[in-house]
Amino acid sequence: MLTLNLVPCTNITLSKPKSHQYSINALHRAQNQGDFHLPRGLFNKPKSQVISNLSRIHGYPFGFCAKPSSQIHDTSAKITSLDTTGEHPSGVGAKPRSWVAKAAEFEGESEVSKPNKTLQLGIVFGMWYFQNIVFNIYNKKVLNLFPFPWLLASFQLFVGSVWMLILWSFKLQPCPKISKPFIFALLGPALFHTIGHISACVSFSKVAVSFTHVIKSSEPVFSVIFSTILGDNTYPLRVWLSILPIVLGCSLAAVTEVSFNLQGLWGALISNVGFVLRNIYSKRSLESFKEVNGLNLYGWISIISLLYLFPVAIFVEGTQWIEGYHRAIQAVGKPTTFYIWVMLSGVFYHLYNQSSYQALDDISPLTFSVGNTMKRVVVIVATILVFRNPVKPLNALGSAIAIFGTFLYSQATSKKSPKKIEGEKSS
Q1: Quick one: pLDDT band at residue 117, thresholds 50, 70, 90?
Q2: Whether the Cβ atoms of residue 386 and residue 318 lie closer than 8 Å to each other
Q3: What is the pLDDT, as a whole number, of residue 416?
Q4: pLDDT category, 421, cuts 50, 70, 90?
Q5: What is the rounded CA–CA span in Å between residue 4 and residue 70?
Q6: Rounded CA Rg of the chain
Q7: pLDDT at 334 exceeding the cut of 50
């Protein structure tokens, strides 16, 4: 007769893995209830034989002390039926251990990925703001010496077009498939993009950069009005109320602006109209080309906009370029300095637009809108410090009200139904 003395435990607990400790009695109950499945042969044998078999697998790793009064030899018992996974000699501990390992691995990845994503977005936003500041500074420096916004705007589109062609040629950016329907769909948005870009550049050449950005912060007003007129969207009362501070602030800033110029004001307003219509018609005409990502879309819009703009630029101011170039070189002293300024304005114009598209790919439209509002604040403050533009208290108050109104607008438009928000993200 086989006997086995247990000291002092009556239940046999499994200590490996620690996170899954079972007793033999608990395993019996689970097997009877159908909640836990082990090979049938394990529970068809006497308890002493089960203990013996389990002891042979790991010696004494299960948390009990066994002192047999007589040596037990059971060579007929096989443990291979327990090895159901091939990962562990015992099928009891193999699966729970793998589950724990995978769960820990997944949890570790999620903990690491969240800070990494936050850091990545912080870098994208930082680069977006920095590149926008550099563009505005050197764009204004060039226009102060060379007041020909049509040529400078054409050059900036040219730099962006060449940049995208390089990315596509070296396969740093996947090139979208070109078709006639795609080109035709881009003609309208590219035209409005051209109008928005050249109008902003004209405004920059006539007034202070800070004033142009204050007026351009009124873009939500035009977005609400044109979207409603064209039947593209309907807005609740809270959205209409949110644009009132924008109108009030821009009006106050315009009246008190030291460098006020009517052409500069109209340039900024027309730029808002151009970019709003670009967004509306992009949503309509490019509905069936959602596989094209934002950066590729912007690259092709830049190329077509250059074809629109440069012939008109030659007609508008082409006869004055040579004389203006000599005056600019004489004023700056070193030709290389002027060339560097022009190149920086072109490169950073494309880079800040590229960063904005990358940011929009990773965040919601609401977050992007708030970030864009804060970007205007940073640009306004930076350009005032660099160019030392005089700012009256009422002008500063008007600018603050306009920008705060833009923030209220972004909050008001975010309170939509989930279906509408999802539709905006997909567009």
Answers
A1: confident
A2: no
A3: 53
A4: very low
A5: 8
A6: 35
A7: yes
Residue 35: the pLDDT is 45
Q: Are 249 and 404 in contact (CB under 8 A)?
A: yes
Q: Structure tokens of 73?
A: 């030899």
Which DSSP state fits 82?
A: G
Instruction: Label residue 154 by pLDDT band (50, 70, 90).
Output: very high
Distance of alpha carbon 372 from alpha carbon 306, whole angstroms = 25
The mean per-residue pLDDT over the stretch 268-295 comes to 87
Structure tokens at 424: 């905006």
Q: Which residue has tokens 């970007």?
A: 375
Q: What are phi and psi of 7, to 5 degrees?
A: -125, 120
Question: What pLDDT is recorded for position 388?
Answer: 87
Q: What is the mean pLDDT of residues 206-233?
A: 90
Q: Token pair for residue 105?
A: 């691995």
DSSP run (H or E) holding 125: helix 91-145
Peptide bond into 89 cis (omega under 30): no
Length of the chain equals 427
- DSSP class of residue 13? B
Does 211 score more than 80 pLDDT?
A: yes
Q: Residue 256 corresponds to which tokens in the numbers above?
A: 């008190």
**What was the pLDDT predicted at 347?**
96
DSSP conformation letters of 285-341? HTTT-TTS-HHHHHHHHHHHHHHHHHHHHHHHHGGGHHHHHHHHHHHHS-HHHHHHH
Q: Which residues contact 252 (CB under 8 A, 6 or more apart)?
A: 394, 395, 397, 398, 401
pLDDT at residue number 88: 38
What is the C-alpha separation between 376 and 133, in angstroms, rounded? Answer: 9
State the CB neighbour count (10 A cutoff) for residue 38.
15
Within 13 Å of residue 398, how many CA atoms lie on the same side as its CB? 22
Mean pLDDT rounded to a whole number for the chain = 76
Q: How far apart are CA 272 and CA 279, in angstroms?
A: 11
Q: How far apart are CA 95 and CA 81, in angstroms?
A: 15
**Per-residue confidence (pLDDT) for residue 20, from 0 to 100:** 45
The greatest distance separating any two alpha carbons of the chain, rounded to the nearest whole angstrom, comes to 116
Alpha-carbon distance of 153 to 136, in angstroms, equals 13
User: Following DSSP, what letter does each residue of 190-250 receive, concatenated?
Assistant: HHHHHHHHHHHHHHHHHS-HHHHHHHHTTHHHHHHHHHHHTTS----HHHHHHTHHHHHHH
